Amino acid sequence: MSIPEFQYIYLLYAGLLLPVVAVLIFLQALRKKKKAAKKIGDKKLVDQLTAAYSSRKYLIKFLLIVTALSLLVFSLANMRSSAGTPLGKRNGVDVMIALDVSKSMLAGDIKPNRLERARQLVNKLIDRLQNDRLGIVVFAGKAYLQMPLTADHSAAKMYLSTASPDIIPTQGTIIAEALKMSNAAFNSNEKKYKTIILISDGEDHDEDALAVAKNIAASGGIIHTVGMGSQQGAPILDLLTGQLKTDINGNTIISKLNEEELRQLAKSGNGLYQYFDNTDKVVNNILNQIAHMEQKAVKDDSLTDWLNYFQYFAAAAFILLLIEVFVTEKKRKANGGIKKKIITTAIHFLVFANFAIAQSENEFIKQGNAEYQKGNYSAAANKYKEAIKENPKSGIAYYNLANAQYKSKKTEESIAAYDKAAKLLSTSSELSDVWYNRGVVLQNNKKNDECIIAYKNALLLNPRHEQARQNLQKALRKQQEKKEKQNQQDQNKNQQPKPQSSRLSQKDAEEKLKALMQQERNLHDKLNKQNAQSPNQPEKDW
User: Fold this and answer.
1) Rg of the chain taking only CA atoms, in angstroms
2) Domain regions of the chain by residue span
3) N or C: which terminus of the chain has fewer CB atoms within 10 Å of its end residue's CB?
């Protein structure tokens, strides 16, 4: 059992401030009573009127109410601890996969192409790295954090499926930036437990990669590299044109595996270089390397089985309020307020009963989480529905139900449950996750315009939600591509056929050819000038 923690820490601060505010109110009330007594003027008359009044009992009642309210706030803050070994807790390491998605990875010297075989390799790694947290960085001319470190391996596979040259606007291959991005995803305070698996053809257009690798190794990181391709190389198919990619002189580009670069990176990163020839062999070798690393407790709170203690605070508050009901401010026990006390007691009892219902709701959620962890998504959904029956206003139950229904491929039911959760949950963090997950469901069902709205809502609630930001960028790019395609179709539709001009004379043809050649020379000179001014920028777009 872990050290208890409060789920809603901001409520705890309110519970600590409440007594201070109550004391100030109490002192103000005492001053008003003294002023009222002075207005009467006759001290003997005042004493006679307040003969049955007990200031000590008044103070006791005040303290009982304040303490009870503070306990109720503590109850709402929900003290909890993980029950035994949490469902989402295990021993492992943090693994960042840096995947090259540049156009050179489309070369077909490994069938069907380098990128597709790399995705197959990563898929097998995800299946075998069950005890580890995974993250994904994709890179070409720039590097992007595709998925932060998480224990949710199903999410990793989802992000992997979208990895392609289309998601990186800047082409080229900048390995140094990919290594920096991967290292930044780790806990900077840790000197171990972290490894980077770089999968690339090694066509690096930057010279800083080796220096970056050495710095990562100095901070405790390990870099393994996997070489995709062959020494003979192969041409690159341009997906936009359907033609083989050529250089500025019109020659077909042959992309070759740069083994020396990848071997040096692995050596500098205290890791292992492997030439890709067999998926299982490469996976087994990497797993063997990771197995010899020191491991840590890897935790995923989303499926942790919690023990909650809010009911104890609620019970203590109920007892104090019950005591307060039977404490009178009079020195002698009065008989006229019994009925009022009974009614107040009944109200307090109902409050306590609500907490008991909440406990039953939590038990069903725990059972649902256990089924979800086993992959029994239908059974998990049934447990969450039972929790909702206990408490129809449970936002957490609706949120978990939506996740389970999505896993069961019940798209419409899942979206409806997310909408319900969004109405019931209150914190920005929870609502941001709801909108993000809703966006993922919509995006996977090709509802691009709707998912854009969902991701924007997620970012409005939590501007630091990096996954929502990445997915929004992809959706916006897809939306723009759709608009451009539609505009092109409309343009082609509206374009009227023009009469063909007569054949050019030999002189006109020569002049046009000279003009085109001059344009090409000007472009070539411009590119050379840019490269000379910016030597660190990639000069290749593959």
Assistant:
1) 34
2) 1-86+300-332, 89-299
3) N
One-character DSSP codes across 217-264 = HHTT-EEEEEE-S-SS-EE-B-TTTSSB-B-TTSPBPEE---HHHHHH
CA 458, CA 468: separation in Å to the nearest integer? 7
Highest mean pLDDT among 350-354, 374-378, 485-489 belongs to 374-378
Residue type present at position 129 = L
Q: Burial of 123 by CB count in 10 Å (0-12 exposed, 13-18 middle, 19+ buried)? A: middle
Name the nearest CA neighbour of 87 among 309, 296, 363, 299.
299
- 367 phi, psi to nearest 5 deg: -65, -40
32 is written with which tokens? 């008003």
User: What is the bridge-based pairing of β-strands 222-227 and 273-275?
Assistant: parallel
DSSP string, 199-211: EE------S-HHH
343 contacts: CB under 8 Å, gap ≥ 6: none
112 beta partners: none
Alpha helices in 102-243 (DSSP H): 114-128, 153-161, 175-184, 209-218
CA distances from 330 to 46, 47, 57, 504 (A): 15, 14, 8, 115
In single-letter form, the type of residue at position 198 comes to L
Helix (H, G, I), strand (E, B) or coil at 82: strand
> At 335, which amino acid appears?
N
User: In this structure, what token pair is assigned to residue 330?
Assistant: 């009079």
Return the CATH class of domain 89-299.
alpha beta
The 10s digit of each residue's pLDDT in 51-110 is 555 667 777 887 888 888 888 887 887 777 765 444 445 578 899 999 999 989 999 899
Q: Which residue is associated with the tokens 């692995």?
A: 266
pLDDT reading at 305 higher than 60: no
**At 220, phi and psi to the nearest 5?**
100, 0
